[in-house]
């Protein structure tokens, strides 16, 4: 989620930039105006609620003064009625303020991350066509059709394991810590995140729904509602397993950076690593930047690593930078809590899928151009070098 201050011109925000970002995504730019309207309404209600609480406090003091002065019974009764009325008005204002804040938060979540200024507006590469490559895998006995697609079998399964082993070793050498997936947040992590969401006014989401949201996002499962110190960053994770089938042979990565510009350098470094990883497996690879309309809501900029044209333009990896968008949603802050930095600083993240065994199989089959013997030679070489 974006920082509300980005919408407020009096705080240095530029709503026009957010509208342009929405237009570049092909999203609804009027959502920005709705956020502005809801924010203004919530702030008015917040001020009114604060005023009524102040009046309630004054009524309580007046009632205490009546008692201290041993005032007449009728004066004391009037003070009590006034206090009761003030309490009801204060409670009503608080309910209205909470409802307005919840509506504002829901609207804010519908606005995507700010698109990076260099993100193109149209795709740089045509859509991939893997039908010929899949026919080669099936003919060679490397794959088998399933109800929902296909899966590697026989030598294809051995090759998937060999490629995944190489990729995981590469990630570890690059400084990534291995984490088993799927991730289940701890009870303490879930409790803190639930409290954070309740403070935002998200009363309708159940604890089970919030737990599911954390499981779906590694950053949330590992660090939701926590503080990370700049000196311990960056943190690098590679996630293995989870999902079954083809999901078992995919490697996802997450890099947590400080609240500076290092996340953009991290994105470049991860893209370079993905290129090196696939080229080392004998797959000629190239880098394509994803167009703004193709970006998911959390990405500000993203790249696809694709096999070269001779290998069917298969997408091998996809990596994106979220800046502080995802971290703000999960309340992962950067700095020292005692310095009063709450809500001001959040970590930045880069994440994505750095390796897909099934995509590598398709790229190798495409490079073999239907020649099963050539594919066998490639597979034998990769499996044997992986063992060595």
UniProtKB/TrEMBL annotation:
Full protein name: Serine-tRNA synthetase type1 N-terminal domain-containing protein
MF-aspect GO terms: ATP binding; serine-tRNA ligase activity
GO terms for biological process, alphabetical: seryl-tRNA aminoacylation
InterPro entries: Ser-tRNA-ligase_type_1, Ser-tRNA-synth_1_N, SerRS_1_N_sf, tRNA-bd_arm
Lineage of the organism: Eukaryota, Haptista, Haptophyta, Prymnesiophyceae, Prymnesiales
Ranges of residues in domain Serine-tRNA synthetase type1 N-terminal: 1-115
């Amino acid at each position: 989620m974006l920082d509300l201050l980005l919408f407020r011109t009096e705080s240095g925000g530029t709503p026009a930039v957010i509208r342009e970002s929405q237009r570049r995504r092909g999203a609804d730019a009027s959502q920005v105006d709705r956020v502005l309207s809801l924010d203004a309404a919530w702030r008015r209600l917040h001020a009114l609620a604060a005023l009524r609480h102040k009046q309630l406090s004054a009524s309580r003091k007046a009632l205490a003064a009546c008692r201290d002065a041993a005032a007449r019974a009728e004066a004391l009764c009037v003070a009590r009625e006034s206090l009761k009325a003030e309490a009801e008005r204060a409670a009503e204002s608080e309910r209205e303020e909470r409802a307005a804040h919840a509506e504002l938060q829901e609207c804010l979540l519908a606005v995507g991350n700010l698109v990076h200024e260099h993100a193109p507006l149209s795709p740089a590469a045509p859509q991939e066509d893997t039908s010929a490559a899949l026919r080669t895998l099936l003919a060679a006995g490397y794959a088998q059709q399933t109800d929902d697609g296909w899966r590697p079998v026989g030598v294809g399964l051995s090759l998937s394991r060999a490629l995944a082993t190489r990729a995981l070793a590469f990630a570890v050498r690059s400084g990534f810590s291995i984490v088993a997936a799927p991730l289940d947040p701890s009870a303490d992590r879930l409790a803190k995140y639930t409290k954070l969401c309740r403070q935002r006014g998200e009363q309708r989401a159940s604890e089970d729904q919030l737990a599911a949201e954390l499981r779906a996002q590694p950053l949330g499962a590992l660090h939701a509602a926590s503080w990370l110190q700049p000196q311990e960053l960056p943190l690098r994770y590679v996630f293995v397993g989870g999902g079954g089938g083809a999901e078992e042979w995919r490697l996802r990565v997450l890099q947590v950076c400080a609240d500076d510009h290092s996340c953009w350098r991290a994105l470049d470094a991860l893209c370079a690593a993905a290129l090196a990883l696939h080229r080392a497996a004998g797959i000629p690879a190239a880098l394509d930047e994803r167009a703004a309309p193709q970006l998911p809501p959390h990405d500000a900029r993203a790249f696809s690593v694709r096999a070269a044209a001779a290998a069917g333009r298969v997408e091998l990896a996809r990596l994106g930078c979220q800046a502080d968008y995802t971290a703000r949603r999960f309340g992962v802050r950067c700095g020292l809590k005692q310095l009063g930095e709450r809500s001001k600083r959040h970590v930045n993240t880069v994440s994505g899928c750095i390796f897909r065994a099934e995509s590598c199989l398709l790229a190798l089959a495409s490079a073999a151009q239907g020649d099963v013997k050539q594919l066998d030679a490639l597979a034998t070489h990769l499996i044997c070098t992986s063992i060595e």
